[in-house]
Amino acid sequence: MKVSAGGLPEWGDASGGYQYEVKTTNFTAASGSAYLVDTSSAITATLPASPTAGDFLMIIDGSGSADSNKITVSRNGNTIMGLEDDLEIDYSETALELVYMDATNGWRITNLI
Question: Cα 101 to the chain's mean position, in Å?
Fold first, then answer.
């Protein structure tokens, strides 16, 4: 990703800078990746243990059944939205982007669809 003179990101392609992966079992997420999660069963996505400011990732309910089989986003020692709780995605067809800020604020949800 590049930043323009006006401070807005300039994406080189339609992927938004992400590398997309399909996940069917529990996994540890990596910065810069987007995960299309098969929710035919419940899955846990573990956030990176040692993130740095600006690390980002996306988690998508790829099969649209998170209302039946939730995606648990394990905070892995850091906070999510300043809270010391794991995040549960239990609404079908949810997509969310997380960006890491710092040790106090932790992971922030920047986009929620």
Answer: 14
